[in-house]
Amino acid sequence: MNILTFFKGFPKRAYTVMEVRTGFATGLPVLSGSFFGAYLTGEIHWLYMILFFIAGFCFNIVANTANEMRAYLAKEENETTFTYHKGSEGLVRGDAKFFDAVFVLLLMIALGGICGLLLVFLTKDLLLLAWGLIGLLAAITYSLGPKPYLLYPVGEVVSGFFVGGLACYLAGRTQMGSGNWQLLLYSVVPMILTVFLMSTNNVGDYEKDRGIRVTLPHVIGFRNAILIVIPEFLILFTCWVILWVTQTIPWWQFLIGCLIFYRQGWQRWYKDYVKIPSVYPEMGREYGPRPLLLIYHFNTWMAFLFFIQIMGRKYL
């Protein structure tokens, strides 16, 4: 293979197997968790935040790329499974080749690993190193290996724990030097939002996954997989209320969070989602991105609001 020919179109081909949109499902909880930790201490460690953001984003891309590689090798993708989302063309739907995916996987492991190790060196936090190694292993074995755990009905819980909850908690802990119960409660919110994203994808792939892997909707049933969102949200909202009642966050930030839950969670997603009686071919394409928008809005706005309050305390 001509190396110059390979790299000429590599960035465009790589983009189609990375699922960059869902990569931010980790990056943004890291961002809001970092700013929450900084908000509790009043000091922002920018370098720690940047390194953690890059590492978290890269490890999520590792999981996405590994998943694309497995789907290609197992011949799980065809014209009936296409979502036609730009940037999600993949190995079957786009111009990328298997070697492109392998190169992306190794590149993201290297970049995320370097940033993670540098962060451990700066913080002297061996717990961070241990969880980082476990997280990387989880990202790879999600789809690859003799017994990838996406074949079993634990993917939603494991992804929620690592991608949303743990990433958020460790990012805040890095800012603070140690964790506390407020940070733990706050991390539950991104964790459950990530569960929403994974469960919606699994519900949309209900028929596609049948006979290939067993997901939670196959175990508890299609409708129950939609209805389980309600108790999950009640846990999320309870944590959010406790943070307000204990004056960890101000009332106006609590209300902004509630507005995001209502607008992005209820109006733009669950209001119609809860009425679906059975799976249909376009379901994944229509509903898959909606919990992702909820993740985007909550974490971005919370990070921004924490930053404003930190700057306000410092300069006003």
Automatic annotation (TrEMBL):
Membrane topology: Multi-pass membrane protein
Keywords (A to Z) from UniProt: Membrane, Menaquinone biosynthesis, Transferase, Transmembrane, Transmembrane helix
Any Gene Ontology biological process: menaquinone biosynthetic process
GO molecular function term, any single one: prenyltransferase activity
Cellular-component GO terms for this entry: membrane
Transport as UniProt keyword: no
CDD domains: PT_UbiA_UBIAD1
Pathway: Quinol/quinone metabolism; menaquinone biosynthesis
Keyword Ubl conjugation carried by entry: no
Subcellular location: Membrane
Regions crossing the membrane: 20-40, 46-66, 98-120, 126-144, 151-172, 184-204, 225-245, 251-270, 291-311
PANTHER family (UniProt xref): 1,4-DIHYDROXY-2-NAPHTHOATE OCTAPRENYLTRANSFERASE, UBIA PRENYLTRANSFERASE DOMAIN-CONTAINING PROTEIN 1
Protein's UniProt name: 1,4-dihydroxy-2-naphthoate octaprenyltransferase
Natural source organism: Enterococcus saigonensis
Gene name in the database record: menA
